[in-house]
Amino acid sequence: MIRKANASDIPSMMKLIIELAVYERAPGEVTNTEQMMLSDGFGDNPLYDAFVAEIDGNIIGFAITYYRYSTWKGRCLYLEDLIVTEEHRKNGIGQKLFDCCIDFGKKNNCKKMIWQVLDWNQPAIDFYNKNNAQLDNGWINGSLDL
């Protein structure tokens, strides 16, 4: 079952974030905390929306999104993470979460959904290609710690 996340889902979501960080070969990079996720997602001015995949009361995946603005397109939905536990991959859970995000973006007047994928993450690249996504290798991502 896919549903909107609530505050009580944060501990399970954090476990999945750590699982993703290990998969992406960057376990020491996670500095986010459950408290930060609670205040940032469920405080007075939520910064993100999240959807969880649940089986028998257990969170087995989630997607987290937020709004972004494009000077060329207008309002866009950014898909920050789409995570499914390793044991539940290849069962359509990721597709259901992805479709949920697409529907959410359409209902909220977003012109497109944007995300990133590591160039070595072939299973994810194949998933996005199956969904007719445009994968762009012409941009270099930048970031700056504040």
Q: What do you see in this structure?
A:
It is built from four helices and five strands. The protein has helices at 10-23, 34-42, 93-107, 122-130, and strands at residues 2-4, 49-55, 58-70, 74-84, 113-114. α3 (93-107) links the parallel β4 and β5. With 146 residues, the protein is of the alpha+beta class. It starts with a strand and ends in a 16-residue tail after the last helix. The protein is 32% helix and 25% strand. It has one domain (2-130): Aminopeptidase (3-Layer(aba) Sandwich). Strands 1-2-3-4-5 form a five-stranded mixed sheet.
What is the name of the CATH topology?
Aminopeptidase
Total count of strands: 5
Which percent range fits the helix content? 25-40%
- Identify the CATH architecture: 3-Layer(aba) Sandwich
List the helices and strands in order: EHHEEEHEH
- Please describe the biggest sheet, giving its number of strands, its sense, and whether it closes into a barrel: 5 strands, mixed
CA radius of gyration? 15 Å
Largest sheet, order of strands side by side? 1-2-3-4-5
Overall number of domains: 1
Shape: globular
Number of helices: 4
Enumerate the spans where pLDDT stays under 50 for 5 or more consecutive residues.
Answer: none
Cα separation of the termini: 38 Å
Q: Could you tell me the strand content as a percent range? A: 15-25%
- Provide the residue-averaged pLDDT: 95
CATH class: Alpha Beta
Q: Would you tell me the structural class of the helices and strands?
A: alpha+beta
CATH superfamily: Gcn5-related N-acetyltransferase (GNAT)
